[in-house]
Design a protein that fits this description.
Layout: H1 2-26, E1 35-42, E2 51-59, E3 65-68, E4 77-84, E5 90-97, E6 104-105, E7 111-113, E8 117-121
């Protein structure tokens, strides 16, 4: 009888521990949790060496970070995606060369967008919400 009661208590404790572990794991963020903000960038010369993006949330305002581009697609665009909080409604961004040394910028001005996917063409300040025609 005593052994049966001990087993029941042990099983109850194990079940409680499992429930607590499962609940704490459910609240941990996933690696890429957040809303994707995707930026495509095109350079007619095809030279993407050292170029990346500096992206920061503006609404609400928060710190920025650098984001590397992937390999060019068949049309010559490179892409980066920042996964940001679902509370973000606008980002600021700069296409820069030299990473954190900021040796140059694609255009002088900071740019801003509330669109979750945009296309940029080197030297052109226009923010395209659809893939623009380009020539290499």
């Amino acid at each position: 009888m005593k052994t049966h009661a001990s087993r029941v208590i042990l099983l109850a404790v194990v079940a409680l521990i499992c429930a607590l572990v499962m609940a704490s794991c459910a609240s941990l963020p996933e690696k890429d949790e957040g809303i994707p903000w995707t930026i495509h960038y095109f350079r007619p010369d095809g030279n993407y060496s050292g170029w990346d993006m500096w992206i920061w949330p503006t609404q609400p305002n928060d710190n920025g970070a650098g984001y590397a581009f992937g390999s060019p697609d068949t049309d010559g665009f490179v892409t980066t995606t920042a996964y940001l909080s679902k509370d973000i409604s606008e980002i600021g961004f700069i296409v820069r060369q030299g990473g954190d040394s900021w040796t140059s910028k694609d255009i002088a001005d900071d740019r801003f967008s509330s669109a979750k996917e945009i296309w940029l063409v080197s030297g052109d300040p226009v923010i395209h919400e659809k893939k623009p025609p380009v020539t290499r």
